[in-house]
Amino acid sequence: MYRYDEFDESMVRARVAEFRGQVQRRVDGSLTEDEFKPLRLMNGLYLQLHAYMLRVAIPYGALSSDQMRQLAMIAERYDRGYGHLTTRQNIQYNWPKLPEVPDILDDLADVQMHAIQTSGNCIRNVTSDPFAGVAADELEDPRPTAELIRQWSTFHPEFSFLPRKFKIAITGSPNDRAAVYFHDIGLRMVAGPDDDAGYEVIVGGGQGRTPMIGKVVRDFLPREELLGYLEAIMRVYNLYGRRDNKYKARIKILVHELGLEAFKDEVEAEYSRKPDADNALAEAELQRIETYFAPKDYETRPDRSEIFEVARHNDPAFAAWADQNLFSHKVEGYAAATITIKRVGGEPGDVTADDMRTLADLADRFSFGEMRVSHEQNIVFSDVRKDDLYDLWKALAKAELGDANKGLITDIIACPGLDYCALATARSIPIAQKISTAFADPIRQRDIGPLSIKISGCINACGHHHVGHIGILGLDKAGEEFYQITLGGDATETAALGERAGPGFSSDEVAGAIERVVDHYLDVRDGEDETFLETCRRLGPDAFKEALYAAH
Amino acid sequence: MAKAFSPKIVSANDLMSGYTIYLGDAGWTSDIADAEIAHDQATADTLLAAAERQPEIAVGPYLVDVTGHLGSDPAPTKYREVIRVSGPTVGALNKLPEAAEQRAA
């Protein structure tokens, strides 16, 4: 993992001290709320429906076990004993008190964490593949690049007041698990014509009220040119991005309105003004960062583990988890394991302090003391010896964290919705709870196979509903919650936006509607191997309408 | 014909805790039953102006439509405000906020 140097440490501490003074001045009346609000937002502090909310950055989702223990301590000391994993690989606290927030930030700084740039019109947390660095299908580890971008974008004076917030994601694998087509900038690590390392650069993707799939502006950008080229994109956006209308201010609107070719021309023209001298500096820094992500101290082991195979044979519950929640590791004898934070009937992404401590202890025992938060609101142990998987799962199951539902219909993404969020128009979490309860039967879940349900409580789409195989959007209709369903969305390299199925449903009707869609899929799929998304693509979303609106 | 006036109360978030608070005749309160109801626009405007003069207590005061006849407790007409009264509808850990520190009075 990357470790802060003395500059990072002093910057973060100075920022906490500054914010402590700002809070003090707000409380004593020297600052008005209008003056204070942008200052607190720059430190990740929002005011929501019932309380303040503090969003803590987890760069590309990577957490050490000590950091997780500190998050648990903070949850108990300052909050209500839990935190919420977000769809941007961060964690939020829902109940901090204003005078205590500087203390929380100091406690975060003790473990090299902070809440800087988790709000405001700046470059936000860089997100990535939760299996980065260990995925068997990976071309290259994206984490050093993600860390380079984090350092470059932190307190970048030119990009601290952009037209709107800005999100960057990167994948090192051709199988996109970072939704790079749905970010302001998406980067895919690719090999160049001479097998040299570099990036495909995608710009202008996003969700929200105007969902768009990102467009490729450079097929191949040599790795040493990355920061210069990103800077050119940011400058074009900073100059031409709309500041007159908040809803048209994201870069996707600029790319759309200018047209891809004109946008590319602007970026290339800006980039051509860039002196090459910076490239050597960026490359040297990237190489320095890479040393922090050197391969772990893996043991040389056979790929096949007898202990694992025997346990899998003897314990069907473990076999189900192993089949569903494990991911191929690039090192023989190891696997990456997803621990889903999606208990049946639970709140997607909510982790209690006890859960956090359990995860930290298990990461110490089984995964080099590290874990990742995924944008699917789960936790990944990236480096588990296959010999240890059964012991890990037993310990997880004891803590009710051993559900075998990764990628299945109960592995639902949901934003906090109207239960917490000041922007929301409807609740998300209770819908997730009803659906996961309706599909609680693990055999039925496995029979249905891969199916992602994503729920947003408003058109801002924090719950990624546009890219859910089944997306659910909560709206307000004459003072009542009401939910639109979309079908066929896809967040991966075969990116697609879901299509609206038709009229919406009341909160009591949604789970039943989803059951009808799923039952229809089971009836019409072309064999058990055809996934919901494949069936949806083969037949078209319209094929589900009759089932969806039957008896409605 | 002019639309009938919908009774209103003033709500905000407590500066220190962020909790939902209401303006009552004896100051700010966490209990909506103690909120002062405006039955005409002039009173609503007066209440809101009074709230805005107390930035050391209340953040972002605004008017909330309620049903409420003289002598009965106000009940918000919009679902968002109903949730602000009751707290999150999910989460065993989300007990209702303690009275907003009673600092209101």
Structure description:
The complex is a heterodimer of chains A (552) and B (105). Chain A has helices spanning 6-27, 33-42, 65-78, 101-109, 143-153, 226-240, 251-258, 260-272, 277-290, 306-314, 316-325, 353-366, 389-398, 429-438, 442-448, 510-524, 532-539, 545-549; strands at residues 45-47, 52-56, 62-64, 82-85, 91-93, 127-128, 168-171, 185-191, 197-203, 215-222, 326-328, 334-339, 350-352, 370-373, 379-385, 413-414, 453-456, 470-477, 480-487, 499-500, 505-506. With 552 residues, chain A is α+β, with helices and mostly antiparallel strands. Chain A folds into 4 domains: 6-56 and 87-109, no CATH class; 127-293, Sulfite Reductase Hemoprotein, domain 1, CATH 3.30.413.10; 306-398, Sulfite Reductase Hemoprotein, domain 2; 413-549, Sulfite Reductase Hemoprotein, domain 1 (2-Layer Sandwich), CATH 3.30.413. In chain A, helix 1 (6-27) runs antiparallel to helix 2 (33-42). The longest helix of chain A is centred in the N-terminal third of the chain and has 22 residues, at 6-27. Chain A is globular. With 105 residues, chain B is α+β, with helices and mostly antiparallel strands. Chain B has helices spanning 41-52, 79-86; strands at 8-14, 20-24, 27-29, 58-67, 75-76. In chain B, strand 2 and strand 3 form a beta hairpin. The longest helix of chain B has 12 residues, at 41-52. Mean pLDDT of chain B is 86; it is low at 95-105. The interface between A and B is medium-sized, with 36 and 26 residues.
